[in-house]
Amino acid sequence: MEMNMKDFMKSLPNRTKKALISNGAYKAYSSIACVLIGLLIGFLIMVCLSPADAFYDFGMMITGGLKYYELEGFGNILATMAPLLCCGVGVIFAYKTGIFNIGAAGQYVLGSFGALVFALQFKQHWTICILMAMIFGALWACIPALLKVFCNVNEVISGIMLNWIALFFVNYSYQTYLSDIVDPANSFKTKVVSAISPSSVLPNFGADPNVIGNTFTCAFLIAILIAVVAFILMEKTTFGYQLKASGYNRHATKYAGINAKKNAIITMAISGAIIGLGAALYYLAGVEEWSAQISTSLPQVPWNGIIVAFIAQLNPIGAIFASGFLSLISVGSTATSQSVFPKEISDLITAVIVYLSGLTAVTLRFIPWIKAKLKKKKEGEPKEMALSVNGSKGGK
């Protein structure tokens, strides 16, 4: 006998039932719905542009990273995912405590600077390079935090301004007193880390580069570990509760004995350190080199990290899946017919998903109201049935 949905729900343990109808579950459902609708809209746009090529190229965008590039594509997806995930988690960490870290791009630039200088100039081990990237990112993130706490300067304004200061400072440094680690004949690109200091390159578990590519390293494992630690820190510790409480209402937490100013600075320092780590995981994996002349605009990765944060509904664990999805379609989009559908089609789909994710906050507000209506209706049904039965008896 077939089991309908109602019977299936009744058969589940109470703990599972609560998990399936919890607020976190609704956020997950809404994120999945946003992704599916975004893919559908992207597919319709592709059909409008070129109906003959739409089906094949849409399939390549979703599966091309694995199907077309095979294991090398898998390595590229993981290499792209690591910095995205770190940037997303860094933004989430700050946002959960009431701070919008839009200065992520500047912290990412300084993180890459710290990693590459200690790898190429001082030829340090990759662990030291990662540590310095985190310190550079944390120190740069503390500037808007200090301005916010002591001068009441909005972190969005100061963060945006510091992004450009970081970019121009790094480019100037590479073209002047750090010219030994760049190639002036090649747009001042930083030299290949593996050629200068092999110990500075992230380990790849002995994988064959000819099979899985040169970009496959332990970066994705480090990023996933950071996401899990950030989730535990925010949701399962007293320290995380104090940080979130300071973000909700710093005046109330002041009377509770919590130092809101110190917490704001610590929050931004941790957020900047995670974002700086993401930059180190990107450049020490050999995905690409920094070019001081061509890189006259801010890197796209930290901005995409903000997108990851909102697709994941500000959940570090959800950010793992969101960053993996964006990396999948980003690498897959390079396998499409570039003359018909440029790789920016993945950015278009991502933008649609982000706008839809913004609407989930509105949707979630209606869920308690809908639940209350359904509960009221369910409670009213037995009374109406009883009146109906009594009425029919009285008529006899």
Give a verbal description of the structure:
The protein is mostly helical and 396 residues long. It has a domain at 81-337: ABC transporter involved in vitamin B12 uptake, BtuC (Orthogonal Bundle), CATH 1.10.3470. It has helices spanning 5-11, 14-20, 23-49, 51-67, 70-96, 104-121, 126-151, 155-175, 193-196, 209-212, 219-236, 238-248, 250-255, 260-283, 300-311, 316-333, 345-395, and strands at 182-183, 189-190. It has a two-stranded antiparallel ribbon with strand order 1-2. Strand 1 and strand 2 form a beta hairpin. Helix 4 (51-67) packs across helix 5 (70-96), helix 5 (70-96) packs antiparallel against helix 14 and helix 7 (126-151) packs across helix 8. It is globular, with a radius of gyration of 25 Å. The mean pLDDT is 85.
Topology diagram in text:
Layout lengths: L4 H7 L2 H7 L2 H27 L1 H17 L2 H27 L7 H18 L4 H26 L3 H21 L6 E2 L5 E2 L2 H4 L12 H4 L6 H18 L1 H11 L1 H6 L4 H24 L16 H12 L4 H18 L11 H51 L1
Antiparallel strand pairs: 1-2
